[in-house]
Structures are given as structure tokens and as C-alpha cells.
């Protein structure tokens, strides 16, 4: 599959992904990833300096499931909703069936009292593989601009 | 028409729709809808609880026209512009020629003194039908996150 | 080339353009334009009234290069990053191989201390020509809503 043919199904994958999170269907979230995968949230600064410090780091689908389970059970954080905007999806390359994709994102956050604020902006750097059932992330790096995160980051971005 | 073929023309419809509103060509706005149609703006909370309370409710193109006319004539609200961003357009299903589409949106608002603020985020749940002249909305539900709306909602979202 | 066939490559051009700016690869920025070109940033109000006053005005690729050079050398402005979101890309017409394109944009800005704010919203009105190597801007008008710009506009939008 060439880069052009991969564009639309990868856009669909990203669209489904953000609707899944925004609709609070978090139990389905790990299914966007392969069994062996990497999901990490890291600041732009740390990424550029090659510093390993991350805000979230999961290297298997099992860890993604654990994270959702603890989020559901602990549940000590303020009730909130995300609204993701994604833009400028660019399939920048492919090596041995793994597509690298850059996408700008913005997350807005609405809390219980109903006010919405800008929560986080940044860039997804994703690695995507196609299977019979469709594409999945083998790696998703959320590289965020906003290092001043007003509250604990609980829900995946 | 299958879901994949419907994707691009529906994206075009949504793009035209938001440019129409943002360009203040509101007289053309009702033409995006069928004669019998439903346009409503409802909070996420009310929608999830199946509460009927809406912020705007029009069930014919005539009512949409009335709304624009009264907006133009009453004109007692502060002069303002919207800027819509739409993202993650998903054609989620089709039944008897009616396509259901989910889209994330953000509306920014600029007032007379020239400052821009985040006004509203949410999700469009649209039902779209194709005619010879192109697709139209038979239903558009604007399901908003932001229940704290700082000023009266006058212009359609 | 008809409008429909031009849609995807023009979307790609815009996506590459915003990633180039957001990644701070500003030395590549002039290459998105033709040798003879027009790049200007103007307020919505001035554009609608046909007033010539602009915030930035460059009418050749050389001037675009000069601008980046002076930005790099002067460097007296606060370190900052942009994050562009683009939406509702509409190829609205074509005349003698020149495509006119309307796109909504939002720019968020992150400063050194790591907080992100809404910086500017508006509309790109672009004129695009296709060459063997791909499409380029012969004209890019950044028509902004936000006249209250909190700090000097240094980086191109």
C-alpha cells in the first residue's frame, strides 16, 4: 500500500480514536493498539532533548487496559469530558508496512460546572500497521506543547 | 452509495456549511436543510438523559428562515463573528439512503473589540440525504459540551 | 485538473505548510510559494472594507526569505511555538490553472513557561498552482478575526 492509499483509512482510524475517547468509551480504547505497542505522552521539550521522562508510558495493550481499569475504579478525579480536534494528518513515510503519521491535535476539557477550556495542544507521531480488520497503532507518541497542565492528566489523549 | 463514497461529499457539505455561517451569509443557511428537517441545539447532559430541553429547536426550513429573519431584524445582540473548526468527520451508518455522521466541532467567537474566545465545543450528529443537486441535512443535532454559555446564543452553530 | 482532483493535493499542501511552521523549520517556509508571490496578513475588517493596511506583506519569495532571516537574527522576541489547526478546506474555483481555496485556521501559542493560549483565528484565502513537483501558493492571504493580538506577530501564520 502506498502513502496516498493509506491516507484515508488512517484518517478514519484517527477519527474513530478521538470519538472513542470523547464519548467516554474508554474500554474500547486499547483495541486501537496492537498487542505489543507503545503509548506514551511526552513534552515537546523532553522529546527534542531525547529525555526519557514521560507523563504516561504503556508498552503493551495489557498496560493500556490496566490504566483504564484503574481510572474507572479509582475515580477520584473531577468528572470531565474531552473534545479532541485533529488536523493536518500527514502520512510522512512507510518502512516494511509501518506507516509514520504526523497529526496536530487540540484537546478541550469541560468540567462538571459546564465551562470548557483549552487543555492541551500538540502533535501525534503515530506508527500504524494494516491488518485484515483495518489499521492499528503499534506506537502512538503524544508530544505535547502545554507543559502547564492545570490538573492531573488521567484520561488518555 | 456506500459509506466510503459518501465521506468526501459529506465533508464538503460540512465545510460549506461552516463557511456559510462564518462568512455571515446566514440567508443561505436554511438551504443546507431539506424542507422537512430538524435542527436542534441541545446539551450533552440533556441528550444523554433523553431530556427534551433544547436551546434551539426548528422542525422545518421555514422555521430556520424565520430564525434568521428575526436575528437580522431584532439585531439587539452584540456584533460578533464565529469561526468554526470541524474535525474527525465519521460516516457511521446508512439506512434507506439516510447517512448518519458524527463530527467534532469548536466555535470561536470574536466580538467588536477584536478579542477571540473559545465559545462552544461539541459534536454534530447529522442525518444526510443525497439529492441530484448534492447532499442536504434532514436532521442536524448540535450536542454541546459547554453549558456555561457566556452570552445569548443567537447565531446558529 | 478539476476541483475534486485538486482537493486532496491541496489539503496535503496545507498540512505540510502548517507542520513546517509548527516544527520551526522556517527556512523551508518560502519554498511553499512561487518566486513571484503574495503573502499578506490582514484583518477581516480591513479586507472587507478594502483597506490596504496589512500586518505583514511580502510580494516575492525573496522577501519571505528576508523575513525569516531577520526573525532568526534579531531574535528579540519571546521564545514561542505555534500549533495550527486547519479545517473546512474548500476549493471554491479555478481560473486558468489557478485554484482558489478557503480554509479556516486557528493558531495556539505556547510560550517558554509552557502555557498554551488561543492566539489567532481566521481564514486562509489561497491561490494555488500545480507544478511538476506539486502545488505551490502564488498567493496566501491570512485574513484574521482577532485584532487584539497580545504580542508582536513575528512568526508567519
From TrEMBL, chains A, B, C:
Keyword Oxidoreductase: yes
TM region(s), chain numbering: none
Any one Gene Ontology molecular-function term assigned to this protein's record: dioxygenase activity
Keywords: Dioxygenase, Oxidoreductase
Entry's family note: Belongs to the bacterial ring-hydroxylating dioxygenase beta subunit family.
Protein name per UniProt: Aromatic-ring-hydroxylating dioxygenase subunit beta
UniProt source species: Alicyclobacillus fastidiosus
Top-level taxonomy: Bacteria, Bacillati, Bacillota, Bacilli, Bacillales
